[in-house]
Here is the input.
Amino acid sequence: MKFIELLRTAFQSLKTNRKRSFLTIIGIMIGIAAVITILGMGDGVKKTMYDKFGNSKQGQQTTEIGYSSVDMGSTIHGFTEEDIANIKTEFGSEFKDVKIEHDSLINSKMTIGDEEKSVSINLEKKPEKSINLIAGREITKQDLQMKEPVAMIKESLAKKEFGTAQNAVGTSISSNETTYRIIGVYGGGSKYDQYGTLSAKGTDVVVPYKLYYDGQNANEGDVIKLTFPQDAPASKVSKKIAKYLEKNGSAMNKGTYAYYDMEKELKAFSSQINMITGFISLIAAISLFIAGIGVMNMMYISVSERTQEIGIRLAVGATPTNIMLQFLIEAMVLTVTGGLIGFVLGAGLSHLLAPLLSLGGGIKIKAHVTLNAFLLAFGVSSAVGLIFGILPARQAANKNLIDILR
Here is the structure.
């Protein structure tokens, strides 16, 4: 029998018992969907991290050197224009460019009432949509463009300092010689709760980004970004610059300078994600084994019910190999159909669930379902059909025509 004819016969047989066929492939669908969901989310996390922190531009490398103050609430920054000038003088021939990076999430001191307090500040670049507004109003696009001295504060901070959220609206707070008027108070469940710094979970205060970095803050920061040619020893040079800053940096006595090998960190992070997704996928794959047993059971029943059909085929010239291929293809069509449906479900679920993950800093995760994931779903479902369909197919092929006629 030709392959196309075998395939057509397989589909006809499965259509005859649609309900039984559907119930049989549910396990395959669930197993494949679970694996694809985990892989899609895991690959999405890795891709997001590489896109944000990796060397995305062709023909060059980027590294960062950071400064950490001994006093977490200090307003003194580790890098100034003088530091940049000194780095260019000492190492200018070894890199393409160096500039101060301004973080949008910082720890700083702020005067609230009559006291100076250390707070976590989110420097807003564009209006945030997901805000649980308790009192007042939110920061608008016009506020940001006009660099209005306005601020929003967290409900817990408002109650602690002003008694109620409503009392906080209209009062003033100040930082770095700039006075901000509180225009709104936000509560738990806001997008700002997903942001944070190393020492604080969530954000206490929100102010306009451009306004904060105006004036004295414009030429200062706690991170510098270095750009190198693709073939340059970026890591080696960055370490040399960090050591130089430890002895000559403008804030060398008030904190530490350190180079972080982002590529190395990303590789380690990627390895951990692979281990986690692999382990969870292995657990999810147990359902595929159980589903495979279900497929085998259904095929045995099918062979038993179609004894007369097998006898007729043998009588008109079909070989045992033809019979075995017919039932084997039926099993594989069954599992591959379940695998493809499971792939679609898994891809959809991963795109729905990935945005719920949070890496902090307002980093948004998008699922990334690759061609490899599709090939995995197709390959695994085909293998399940082949492995669990071979014994029933051999039983069908070994039936004796004389015994069937009796």
